[in-house]
Amino acid sequence: MPSLLSSFSDLIFPHRCPFCDSICKEPVCLGCTDAVRFISPPLCDICGIPFKSDAVKSHTCGECMKKKRHFSWARGVLIYNDASAKAIHRFKYNKDTTFSKALGSIISRYPALEGFDVIIPVPLHIDRLRERGFNQSLLLARAVGKRHMIPVDPFALKRTRWTEPQVNLSGKERKINVKGAFEVQGNVRGRSVLLIDDVYTTGATVGECSKVLRKGGAKEVCVLTLARTAEL
Question: What's the CATH fold of domain 37-228?
Fold first, then answer.
């Protein structure tokens, strides 16, 4: 019965490529495979930034050697370029949640997701949640949780104050903007946490969330984002 219902649902609501809106069976249609760049090694083994040279093996980047990271590792699935930015922008700001299934399918296919006790999405402030109508990170987290059979807790982490959008801020300003903006309100003590967000740019937001989760007793925090920038 579930497979029959799924097939019927696919007929009524067919999968659409999140980058061009064409109907396709795969997460990304053939026409968009060149425009969309999936991240692959070599990359930083901590923050996940891809290295430009194929000859370089994965290792810790210079930034991660200098900075203390509160997460064990962070990984992005896509390079944040024009194609992925357009899809994510449409998903977040045009209230087009029809893309949540397609984008969720992309992020949920990340393979190395074993041993986590809980998935926690980066929370929105209540005012922004009311304005947008949904939390894009929660929709992505649910897709990952469903595929990998990991429970999702949308209430374990709370955004305690309004913060300015990070998009137009410098790296230093981003860090100041989110400092003290989150608190743990669920039981994370002794748990391995997978933190989900849509985009990793400087790592300020996921870094602050990871810091708070570790202070709250989380055994480990790892980060998975749909996309990340290719440069620091």
Answer: Rossmann fold (3.40.50)
